[in-house]
Amino acid sequence: QVQLVESGGGLVQAGGSLRLSCAASAPTGSMYAMGWFRQAPGKEREFVSAISYRSGAKSYANSLRGRITISRDNAKNTVYLQMNSLKPEDTAVYYCAAAKIMATTDMEYDYWGQGTRVTVSS
């Protein structure tokens, strides 16, 4: 069983930055790829970014590429999402998720956090 807890969301002005964190608790020896997804009001959940267990592979949504960076610290069991140049359309609840293999579709992820809300004001 993997438990995920996101933090770092909040209210920020357009053009600002936020760093989201996702702390994971998992059985010793577990190796999971991690992903970030987001869901805006009235919209479907969409892929944001993903990273393999050893950080050798990373993936970004085309619409966000260049403004976000995913990273992880396995010693701390934490994955991060640095978001820069935020726009009002980035307003959403951001979720982290864990999967056996890095993927860009939510159906591949087995475990989910409860989300952290990001609001970008214009």
Task: Kindly list the characteristics that best describe this protein.
122 residues, mainly beta, seven-stranded mixed beta sheet, 11 strands, 0% helix, globular
Question: What percentage of residues falls in helices of 4 or more residues?
Answer: under 10%
Estimated share of beta-strand residues: over 45%
Radius of gyration: 13 Å
Q: Quickly give the structural class.
A: mainly beta
For the biggest sheet, the summary is: 7 strands, mixed
How many β-strands, per DSSP? 11
Unreliable residue runs: none
* Helical segment count: 0
The best one-word shape is globular
Taking the alpha carbons of the first and last residues, their distance comes to 40 Å
**Overall mean pLDDT score?**
96
Q: Give the helices and strands as they follow along the chain.
A: EEEEEEEEEEE
Architecture overview:
There is one protein chain. By secondary structure, the protein is mainly beta. The protein has strands at residues 3-7, 10-13, 18-25, 33-39, 46-51, 58-60, 68-73, 78-83, 92-99, 111-112, 116-121. Strands 2, 4, 5, 6, 9, 10 and 11 form a 7-stranded mixed beta sheet that branches. It starts with a strand and ends with a strand.
Secondary structure layout plus pairing:
Blueprint (H helix, E strand, L loop, with lengths): L2 E5 L2 E4 L4 E8 L7 E7 L6 E6 L6 E3 L7 E6 L4 E6 L8 E8 L11 E2 L3 E6 L1
Parallel strand pairs: 2-11
Antiparallel strand pairs: 1-3, 3-8, 4-5, 4-9, 5-6, 7-8, 9-10, 9-11
